[in-house]
Design brief:
heterodimer, A: mainly alpha, 3 domains, 8 helices, 86% helix, B: 238 residues, mainly alpha, DUF5058 (chain B)
Chain lengths: 230, 238
């Protein structure tokens, strides 16, 4: 056997190894994700019809449409945008694990960097998979005791701190809006101006999340275009 | 409020949460095994496999702890098991907070208010679960064809994808502005809390971006929530 043939054989074996790897990744990736999808539908069905807390389909459909209108692009574009970094197996892992941009992607990149594997290559994909897999397990190990400890902590907080808990929502919303404002300060000014005028307007029908989103998008994009042209 | 938390922390919701966590753990272990087996085919040594695993696990510690700060603040609205399964795993805090607020809004109540009934909670659970399932459906159905789609999209003009990002960002800003304004009209303490959290976030992100401090980026939302609450506390005692 010549050296040439030997390397050919090695490459062939490697390609076969990766083909089997992808077959397995697709199989197990889809199977686990479908099981979670089924559980995700069973849980609200249980609350609605076994426990009898069904709120009616009206609010459910309205909420889903609003949520889907906001997140639809992310749901479809995120997997495509992250695919070059995550690869097949990394995609299945990251989207089931959640916290993609704040945990999975940094862990994948760190794992690739640690062993000098380029993103987008097969070696990079295997490294990303190992990195995200380990990150996911670590996350769960940290998560469970903290959730239990956390609810205990909340129950023993001094009264003053307890009374501050009613202000958690404005704190969360303010913080997240700040996160976006860094990226697009102008949009945030427009968004707040629009939403505040909606809230303070006497017309109740305007106090709707769709109205806020639509006007913010239209005004932001219109002004963006005008500035680009000028 | 008490009734709804009894439902939110009930045994059956715990069973669902633990089943889902079990699936996430199973998938993680399976994929680690698959990747370790394939490692030699891509020219990776056993040392490199261990190094990749170790790096991934260590890199998750910071973000994971940061996630928990936000998760704990949401326990008061959603209860333990839902927070565990939606914010800690599968989802992410900002998106799930958005979904929960939309769900409560559609039922005509507010998260955590005295009128937040088991029915309102059920609306929230429908919103979060159906939303999450839609995202997972896309991944389960189309990952096989993403390889091709990715080439097509990146091949197309860059202005198209820039436009998509701009519209999405504006839409999310519109949504969160709506929620912030809803809080602002409740009174001056709410207003100061929102401003405190927003401004501290902007300052932290500025510093983190300028000096390239990764941990500050990871912790920014958790710290911003605490900063907002602190500002609120100062305002109430003044």
């Amino acid at each position: 056997m010549t050296i040439n043939e030997e390397t050919n054989l090695k490459e062939k074996k490697a390609v076969q190894g990766m083909d089997a790897y992808y077959d397995q990744a697709h199989l197990w990736g889809r199977l686990t994700i479908w099981m979670v999808i089924i559980l995700s539908v069973l849980l609200p069905l249980y609350l609605s019809f076994i426990l009898g807390f069904h709120p009616g389909w009206g609010p459910i459909i309205a909420a889903y449409i609003a949520y889907a209108a906001l997140m639809g692009l992310a749901w479809t574009m995120e997997p495509i945008l992250y695919f070059p970094t995550l690869g097949v197996s990394g995609t299945y892992l990251a989207f089931l694990t959640g916290n993609i941009s704040n945990m999975c992607l940094p862990s994948a990149a760190a794992a690739q960097h640690a062993i000098g594997a380029e993103p987008g290559t097969k070696k990079g994909e295997v490294a990303a998979t190992l990195g995200i897999g380990a990150a996911s397990l670590m996350n769960i190990v940290i998560l469970i005791p903290i959730i239990f400890g956390g609810s205990y902590l909340l129950s023993v907080l001094p009264e003053e701190a307890q009374s501050m808990l009613q202000y958690i929502l404005p704190a969360i919303f303010g913080g997240i809006l700040g996160q976006f404002a860094i990226k697009k300060p102008r949009y945030a000014v427009i968004g707040l101006a629009v939403a505040l005028s909606i809230m303070l307007s006497p017309i109740g029908a305007l106090k709707n999340i769709f109205v806020a989103i639509l006007i913010t998008v239209l005004v932001s994009i219109y002004l963006d275009k005008k500035i680009i042209k000028a | 409020m008490r009734d709804v938390m009894e439902v939110a922390n009930s045994g059956v919701i715990w069973i669902f949460a633990l089943l889902i966590i079990g699936l996430v753990v199973t998938q993680g272990l399976l994929f680690i095994r698959l990747a370790s087996r394939a490692s030699s085919a891509v020219g990776m040594s056993p040392t490199e496999v261990r190094s990749a695993l170790k790096t991934g696990a260590i890199s998750a510690i910071g973000p994971s702890l940061a996630i928990m700060v936000i998760a704990i603040s949401l326990i008061t609205f959603l209860g333990d098991p839902l927070t565990l399964m939606r914010i800690g795993i599968i989802g992410s805090a900002p998106i799930e907070a958005l979904g929960a607020s939309i769900g409560a809004d559609a039922y005509g109540v507010e998260l955590g208010s005295s009128s937040f009934s088991p029915q309102a909670l059920t609306t929230v659970v429908w919103t979060l679960c159906l939303g999450g399932a839609t995202g997972l459906f896309v991944v389960a159905t189309f990952t096989k064809s993403f390889g091709r789609a990715e080439k097509k999209i990146t091949g197309k003009s860059k202005s198209g994808s820039k436009m998509i990002i701009a519209v999405t960002t504006a839409a999310l800003i519109g949504a969160f502005s709506f929620f912030v304004s809803g809080e602002v009209v409740k009174g001056h303490v709410h207003t100061f809390v929102a401003i405190g959290a927003g401004l501290s976030m902007i300052i932290m992100m500025r510093i983190a971006n300028e000096k390239n401090i990764t941990w500050l980026k990871e912790w920014s939302l958790g710290l911003a929530i605490l900063a907002g609450l602190l500002v609120g506390y100062v305002v109430t005692i003044i």
